[in-house]
Design brief:
This protein has seven helices and seven strands; from the N terminus they run βααβαβαββααβαβ. With 185 residues, it is of the alpha/beta class. It has one domain: Rossmann fold (3-Layer(aba) Sandwich), CATH 3.40.50. The strands form two sheets. The chain has a five-stranded parallel beta sheet, with helices on both faces. It has a two-stranded antiparallel sheet with strand order 4-5. α2 crosses α3. It starts with 5 loop residues before the first strand and ends with a strand.
Length: 185
């Protein structure tokens, strides 16, 4: 069994990926992932262990079945959870569907859902119930919406201290996860 200590970040990048000087950096959801990396670079104690750094990079022009998909699986197999950035910009891409489907149904990884369009807990839920505007975001990614109850899912706004708390929470790590279901802080 592999050592599962990484945090797998899942985010939308438009397909087909267009090579340019900006590359994926022009995709809004990718920028949120880069912010996690920047927080870690600035503070070595920030509890983000990037699963994408655990295998060599691949080019987006690589063969999906022979290279890209197996690399995603390898990274997920070495992860303890998934950080899913779900925003107004998120779309149902092939890569994102594969990451979520494989991560939930094969690896049974808990998911920390970060909503970058929202900064406060009250934006996500009221009286312990997820708000309808958040549930509508789930429709952007049906594989997540339809399978999220198979693993613990934590729903949080885009706030550094809450992301840090979630990354440190053993209830959302595959080896020590809590019961399947929907959770909010």
């Amino acid at each position: 069994m592999s050592y599962r200590n990484g945090n797998y970040s899942a985010f939308y990048v438009k397909e087909p990926f267009k090579e340019s000087n900006l590359g994926a950096n022009q995709a809004k959801d990718f920028c949120y992932y880069n912010l996690l990396r920047a927080w870690k670079a600035k503070d070595s104690e920030f509890p983000f262990n990037d699963s994408h750094d655990k295998t060599y990079d691949v080019r987006d022009g690589s063969d999906w079945e022979k290279t890209l998909k197996p690399r995603l699986h390898q990274r997920l197999n070495n992860s303890k959870n998934i950080i899913l950035f779900l925003s107004e910009n998120t779309a149902n891409s092939r890569a994102l569907r594969e990451e979520i489907e494989y991560g939930i149904n094969n690896c049974e990884l808990p998911i920390i859902v970060v909503y970058p369009d929202y900064e406060e807990k009250e934006d996500i839920a009221k009286d312990g119930n997820i708000k309808e505007k958040i549930k509508k975001l789930w429709d952007k990614l049906p594989v997540f919406r339809d399978n999220m109850e198979n693993v613990p899912t934590l729903h949080i706004p885009f706030k550094k201290n809450l992301i840090k708390k979630a990354l440190e929470d053993s209830d959302f790590m595959v080896q020590t996860k809590t019961d399947n279901g929907t959770y909010i802080y």
